[in-house]
Design brief:
Blueprint lengths: L1 E8 L4 H14 L3 E8 L7 E9 L14 E4 L4 H4 L11 E5 L14 E5 L1 H7 L11 H12 L4 H11 L4 H13 L2 E2 L6
Parallel strand pairs: 1-4, 4-5, 5-6
Antiparallel strand pairs: 1-3, 2-3, 6-7
Helix pairs in contact: 1-4, 1-5, 3-4, 3-6, 4-6, 5-6
């Protein structure tokens, strides 16, 4: 079983990203479990969402305290909260950032990837310039970073889950897939 924790802000599509990714993994033949954790339910407030994937039935029904991987939808959260708390050694951290994020990967033997999902979303007119909706771009970057699920499964999940601009969202996932940067050139 693998556990993935998403960190984002209300209004970015963090919860929809975890649900869409769960559907993509399910279509690819995985067992899945996803759920959000809300603090203050308002736009811009920190949000966490969790995803478990496994090849066997998932019986665990608790929070995710030691994730295998982390997805950070807003790089500004890195200074505000400990996004790496509990992250297992060797785990990936995927960050929405235009530049290499300031995370000490040696402290926990982490692997780091980043993508400018914000620019991708703006370029595809997803949300507004001031409030871009980055979730589908992050899904494409996730598929590239982790080597799974296949981008075709991401496309299907987007078409099923995203209520508007389906083709623009699919295009954003593809664009982000191609724009992922890896620290030290390591890919999954």
């Amino acid at each position: 079983m693998q556990e993935i924790r998403f960190h984002g802000r209300g209004g970015q599509g963090t919860v929809l990203a975890s649900i869409s990714l769960a559907k993509a993994f399910f279509e690819a033949g995985w067992e899945v479990q996803t759920f959000p954790l809300f603090g203050v339910e308002r736009r811009g407030a920190p949000v966490e969402a969790y995803l478990r994937i496994a090849h066997e039935k998932i019986y665990l029904r608790s929070g995710v305290y030691t994730p295998d991987h982390i997805v950070v939808m807003d790089a500004k959260l890195i200074g505000a909260i400990d996004v790496t708390r509990g992250l297992k050694p060797g785990g990936w951290i995927l960050v929405n950032s235009a530049v290499q994020p300031h995370i000490d990967v040696t402290a926990g033997d982490f692997r780091l990837a980043w993508v400018d999902a914000t620019s991708v979303a703006v370029a595809h007119r997803l949300g507004t310039r001031t409030h871009p909706i980055i979730n589908t771009a992050v899904l494409g970057a996730f598929a590239r970073t982790f080597g799974m699920p296949d981008l075709a499964h991401i496309e299907t999940a987007i078409r099923q889950e995203v209520p508007v601009k389906k083709e623009e969202n699919v295009a954003a996932a593809h664009a982000a897939y191609d724009q992922v940067h890896f620290l030290r050139g390591e890919e999954a």
